[in-house]
Amino acid sequence: MRALAGTRSFARYLERNGKGSVAALATVRTPKLPRSLPKPLAASAAKRMTETALRAGEEREPWIIARDAAVLALLYGAGLRVSEALSIKRKDLVGTRDAITVTAKATRRAWCRCCRR
Predict the structure, then answer these.
(1) Is 109:101 a contact under the CB 8 Å cutoff?
(2) Is residue 100's pLDDT more than 80?
(3) Distance in angstroms between the alpha carbons of the first and the last residue of the chain
(4) Taking phi first (over 0 means left), then psi (-120 to 50 degrees means alpha), and beta for anything else, what does residue 105 get?
């Protein structure tokens, strides 16, 4: 695909400078690559990512390392998008802080820590 794109670009350059015309290249279609769904991360790998001991040697404040681990756990455990997780405010906590309300694409979803709903 890159070779075809480069060849087309070179042909357009030649046409703009009056060096030739290669109209046949405009009719050639690029090959379609098959698309696959993203593969989910295994639960054990997700747990390893949230371990604060894994990053304890970094020169960052301990609360920053704990915050990052919490955001990763929230992303994986609740299936949130990054923008959803980062937009959570203290007022979104529901009741005894076992659940949060997340605004997602103009709809409100409630996530409960115990049942993941």
Answers:
(1) yes
(2) no
(3) 44
(4) left
